[in-house]
Q: What sequence folds into this?
C-alpha cells in the first residue's frame, strides 16, 4: 500500500444541497490528497433514483468551486477512471452482484416491497423492529429458503428480485480506523443489506465498494454516520477477494448543534439565524430558501478555515490557516474523535479576521458594486478612503454600507432618540456658528480642523462633548461612525457645512 499513489474521493449523493459537514469532508479529503501528493476525486453517488434532487449535483460542484476545492477527477473535471457519476456506470454493477451470489456471499430475495411492509407493520404491533437477517432469512422468500428449481423458475419467469448480502453468523470484524482507532463489530446483530435492487440499480453499499476498488481509492475519509456500514464494506472487500488492495478507513466526527447536543441540522440554521449550507439553496420542491455562507458574505477562505477547526486539532494555538498551511500541517491522526460544537459567533470571528487582512483597496473593490446598485455616484478613491476608515468596524463586506452609508448619502432623517437627548433650544444657532467657522478653515485635514474647532469651543465656553455628538447627528443621521474629524475630512468642507445647515434648519423639537 505504501508505494501506491494516494487517491481519495468525495462521494456525495445528490439528494439535496451539500451540508457544511459535507464540505468539511471534502476539505479533509482534499487536504489529505494534497499533503501526500495524491489525487482528489469527486464521485457522484446517484444510484437512488427515488431520492434524486435536480440541481443538487450542480450545487455540489458549484460549492466545491467556490471553496477552491477543485477535484483532480470527476464529472466535468476529466480523469482516467470515469465515468464519475454512478448512474453512468450502471451496467458494471450487476456482474459484481452475481459474482457474490456464485461465491455464496449473497442471495436472491423475491419478497415484494408490500410483503416487507406487512412484516414491518406486524413487528411494530408487537413492539419489535423487523430485520431481514440471519434470524429471519430462512422464513422469508429467497434463494436460501426456496429450492434451486423454484429459484430458477422465478428468475426465468421474470419475477423481480433483489440481491442481498449474506451476513456471516457471529463474526468479529475489526478495523483500524485512522481517526477512531480500533473498532470491532460483531455480525450477529447486522442485517442482510440489499446490494442490488429490483430496478436494476445497485445500492449505495455495492456501488460504493465496487467503485472505490475500480477507482483505486487508497483512503476513505467520510462522516461518522457511515461507521455502521463499515463492517459490511470490509466484508464486501473480503467477499470480492480485494482485501490486499482495499482502502483504509477514517470516520470524521459529527458537527454538533451550537447547544452541543445532536447533529447540526438545516433547521438549526433557520431557527438561530446562521447558514448551514455553503451556497444559497432554493428547495425545488417546497420553494423554501436556505441561506448560504457565500450569500451571507463569508469569504471562502474563512469558511474553510472555520470548518477545518471543527474536527481538526493542529496541536498548537494557531487558529488562522491558509489552505496551503492546512495542507502542510494536516494529518488524520490529529482529527478528533468526539463531535465538534458549531459556534456561529466563531464563524463570524473567522470572517472578521480575513476581512481585516484585506487592504482598503481589496475591500473597496468588493463593495463598489453594492454602491453602484444603490445608485451611489462616487469614485474608487473615495471608497478606498472610507474602506480604510471603517474596515475595523466590519465583519462582512455588507457591513460596509451599514457602517459607512453616510459618507455617500446625506441623512434624510435623524435618529429621534439621539435628537431628543442632544437638541436644546440654542442648538440651531450654535450649529450655524460652527458652520460659519468651518467655512473659514483653509487646510481641510482632520488634525487642523480639530485644532481650530477646539479653540473656537474654548472661546465660546460650549460643552465640547455635547456639541460633538450633535454634530455627529447632523453629519451621520445618528450616533454611529468613526472619528468625527475624519468624517468631516472625508466628506469635504462643502458637504459638511451643507449638512450642518440642513440639520439646523430642519430638526425641530
Ligand atoms: N454517498 C455517500 C454520501 O452521500 C458516501 C459515503 C462514503 O463516502 O462512503 O455521503
A:
Amino acid at each position: 500500500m505504501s508505494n501506491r499513489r494516494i487517491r481519495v474521493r468525495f462521494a456525495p449523493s445528490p439528494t439535496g444541497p451539500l451540508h457544511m459537514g459535507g464540505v468539511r469532508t471534502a476539505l479533509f479529503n482534499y487536504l489529505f490528497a494534497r499533503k501526500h501528493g495524491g489525487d482528489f476525486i469527486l464521485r457522484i453517488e446517484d444510484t437512488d433514483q427515488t431520492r434524486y434532487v435536480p440541481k443538487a449535483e450542480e450545487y455540489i460542484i458549484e460549492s466545491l468551486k467556490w471553496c477552491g476545492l477543485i477535484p483532480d477527477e470527476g464529472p466535468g473535471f476529466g480523469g482516467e477512471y470515469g465515468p464519475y457519476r454512478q448512474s453512468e456506470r450502471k451496467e458494471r454493477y450487476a456482474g459484481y452482484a452475481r459474482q457474490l451470489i456464485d461465491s455464496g456471499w449473497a442471495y436472491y430475495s423475491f419478497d415484494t416491497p408490500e410483503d416487507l411492509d406487512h412484516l414491518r407493520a406486524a413487528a411494530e404491533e408487537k413492539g419489535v423492529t423487523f430485520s431481514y437477517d440471519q434470524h429471519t432469512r430462512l422464513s422469508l422468500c429467497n434463494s436460501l429458503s426456496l429450492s434451486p428449481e423454484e429459484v430458477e423458475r422465478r428468475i426465468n419467469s421474470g419475477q423481480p428480485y433483489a440481491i442481498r448480502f449474506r451476513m456471516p453468523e457471529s463474526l468479529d470484524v475489526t478495523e483500524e480506523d485512522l481517526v477512531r482507532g480500533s473498532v470491532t463489530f460483531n455480525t450477529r446483530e447486522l442485517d442482510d443489506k440489499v446490494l442490488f435492487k429490483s430496478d436494476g440499480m445497485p445500492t449505495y453499499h455495492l456501488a460504493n465498494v465496487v467503485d472505490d476498488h475500480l477507482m483505486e481509492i487508497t483512503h476513505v475519509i467520510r462522516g461518522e454516520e457511515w461507521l455502521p456500514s463499515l463492517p459490511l464494506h470490509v466484508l464486501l472487500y473480503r467477499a470480492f477477494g480485494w482485501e490486499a488492495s482495499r482502502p483504509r478507513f477514517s470516520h470524521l466526527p459529527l458537527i454538533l448543534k451550537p447547544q452541543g447536543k445532536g447533529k447540526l441540522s438545516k433547521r438549526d440554521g433557520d431557527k438561530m439565524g446562521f447558514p448551514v449550507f455553503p451556497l444559497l439553496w432554493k428547495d425545488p420542491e417546497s420553494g423554501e430558501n436556505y441561506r448560504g455562507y457565500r450569500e451571507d458574505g463569508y469569504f471562502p477562505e474563512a469558511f474553510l478555515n472555520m470548518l477545518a477547526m471543527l474536527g481538526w486539532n493542529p496541536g498548537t494555538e494557531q487558529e488562522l490557516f491558509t489552505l496551503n498551511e492546512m495542507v502542510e500541517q494536516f494529518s488524520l491522526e490529529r482529527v478528533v474523535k468526539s463531535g465538534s460544537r458549531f459556534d456561529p459567533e466563531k464563524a463570524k470571528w473567522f470572517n472578521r479576521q480575513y476581512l481585516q487582512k484585506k487592504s482598503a483597496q481589496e475591500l473597496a473593490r468588493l463593495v463598489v458594486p453594492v454602491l453602484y446598485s444603490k445608485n451611489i455616484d462616487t469614485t474608487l478613491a473615495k471608497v478606498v478612503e472610507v474602506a480604510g476608515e471603517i474596515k475595523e468596524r466590519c465583519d462582512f463586506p455588507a457591513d460596509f454600507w451599514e457602517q459607512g452609508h453616510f459618507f455617500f448619502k446625506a441623512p434624510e432623517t435623524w435618529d429621534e432618540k439621539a435628537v431628543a437627548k442632544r437638541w436644546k433650544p440654542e442648538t440651531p444657532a450654535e450649529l450655524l456658528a460652527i458652520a460659519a467657522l468651518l467655512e473659514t478653515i483653509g487646510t481641510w485635514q482632520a488634525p487642523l480642523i480639530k485644532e481650530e474647532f477646539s479653540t473656537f469651543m474654548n472661546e465660546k465656553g460650549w460643552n465640547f462633548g455635547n456639541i460633538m455628538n450633535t454634530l455627529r447627528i447632523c453629519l451621520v443621521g445618528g450616533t454611529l461612525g468613526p472619528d468625527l474629524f475624519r468624517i468631516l475630512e472625508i466628506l469635504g468642507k462643502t458637504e459638511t457645512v451643507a449638512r450642518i445647515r440642513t440639520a439646523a434648519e430642519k430638526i425641530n423639537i
About this structure: The radius of gyration is 32 Å.
